[in-house]
Amino acid sequence: MIRFLSITLSLQLLFTAYLSAQDVGKLTADEIYTQARNIPKEKNNYPKIISLLKLALEKNQDNADARLFLGRAYTWNGNLDSARFQFNQVIAKGRQRAEAYSAISDLEFWNGNAFRALEHINQALLNDPNSPEFLVKKAKVLTAMNDDKQALALLKDYTSKNPGQDSVKKYYDVLKNRNTKNIISLGYEYVYFDKRFNDPWHYTTLDYTRKTSFGPLTGRLIYANRFAKEGFQGELEAYPSFSKKVNAYVGFGYAQSSIFPKFRTGASLYYNFEKGFDAEAGFRHLNFDSLDVSLAVIGIGKYVKNWYFNIQSYISVTSNVPSNSVTLNVRRYFSERFNYVGFQIGTGISPDDRLRNIDQSANYRAYKLGLSYARDIFTNMSLATTALYYREQFLPNTWGNQLGVNVTLNKRF
Description:
Layout lengths: L1 H24 L3 H9 L8 H14 L4 H14 L2 H14 L3 H14 L3 H14 L4 H13 L3 H14 L4 H13 L3 E12 L7 E12 L2 E12 L2 E10 L7 E9 L8 E10 L4 E11 L4 E13 L2 E10 L8 E9 L6 E8 L18 E13 L2 E15 L2 E15 L1
Antiparallel strand pairs: 1-2, 1-14, 2-3, 3-4, 4-5, 5-6, 6-7, 7-8, 8-9, 9-10, 10-11, 11-12, 12-13, 13-14
């Protein structure tokens, strides 16, 4: 009985499908195209959309709308060569060329073929040299090819002649903001102690960074007021880039005041792996009046869409000063690196935390928790804030709390 019902149901489904196919077969090419357009653009529907569009083209091979949509459906379904064929057919017949060039250039760009995408865009611009759509597409491809200079020149020339064209001007402004060469930063941090020190600490920094062809260079002047003393420290940092996958950090600092290390040096090598992973290996060295501290640095990070996860460890290689630390940092970026929200948790004090590097040889424990937030408040100007809490041991069996709040203003130009 069950087998009989199953056979009956299968025959009904086949008959329904046959009638449906018969109904579609009676439609015109335009009507079949419209039916395909109305199907939800979901992965499991792509084969059905493709079948309908092929049927429409059997009825009318010159239906450019159906052929363009078939090319897009092939693109979504991963049939790239079939998609290229359909788009090139439209271009060859001279109908709706702009749409075809737009679709095929997107296909190549999305699949990492920037040079092919640029060839199609240039062909489109031969037909319409002032097309805002293709000028923006060309600028985006040039940017992906690390040719920001040509992209900026292209858009600058167009916007000077067509100031009212909003789509081009909007992307030109985005590109200009992304390609600033200088950054000036002014920061202040206040640290409160409930037990360890009677007076709070004050810490002010003034940075200037210049982007160069081999990487950013930074000069930094630091003022601090702690232990009821004042002092300054100067630093120079460089971030040379050797390739798309390899870059580095080199830093040196000097201070005459006893509230800072007399010398601080450091270097790291960074490697960018596939699938958003990166790694760091390096060292830091701090020279105080009474001791030297040397640490190895290792870290690993991972980008997941707009999120960045990083765990970094500083391991003491100075036998009499085992000052180790481990920190997990998490950031969620918005438009770019000056707009984010972040979180950190860890143990120990990092040698890169300038404010908390002090002359002490005791190996006391510390646990930290921090939150950070940064956003643009004006064009090319951002405000960053950080709150950092420490639960620290500063004497045997004696613990205290410290809370630091930092505010930094960054101006890019």
